[in-house]
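Side project, low priority. Logging it here so it doesn't get lost.
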Amino acid sequence: MAGTPEVIDYEANSVRYGEDVFKESCFFDLREERFNCLSPGTVGYLKREGYLPREAEVFVPTEPIVTSSWTSPGWFCINEVAFKTGFRIPSPQIYEDTIRALGVSPNQLMPSCWKLLYGISRTCETYNIPLTVHDIMNNYYARWYGKGRLIFRIRNNSPHLFYNLDSVDDQTWHDKFMFIKKSSLGEAGAFIPDFLSERGIFCNFCFVFDFSPCFL
């Protein structure tokens, strides 16, 4: 199929790592996921509404053999739920900085991560407060959730920045995904990894942060 990336099966290694990077390690394996059930028409909607650039080259798998755990150089996988919670490309700086720091593919982030990042970005825009990834990790820590996904958890004695982060309206969100060609996004896609991470590169930060709006 023209414009379809050459997918490469990702052979995950069942290796446990210590707690030097994340609070909890995991056996990495997203290959248990079912095949994609995202409607190809969703891409057109995202482009019309400004969530994706019109020139973005997007591949929506229609065959069960292509799951979100497959990788292809130059392409990254992202779930529809990211856009449903406010993510756009080009994205606010807080998204770029956090994804760079975590060193994981976008489809490895749980919905609550996207909601937290959206809340932070809205706070920055609305109140003109320059919050950073360091501020996020003063109140939250990153940990593996299930097999190969990442979630933020509140630190002990830290205030909740936003409420209802873990609520998910669509329980089939993990089965709705697409692949986007990084080069078609220009500089807007340069920060997004096109690989699945088994470990990530994030280190815990400890900075003072006492701002706690709760509007989500």
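Brief comment: Strands lie at 58-59, 75-79, 140-145, 149-154, 177-181.
Revisit when time allows.
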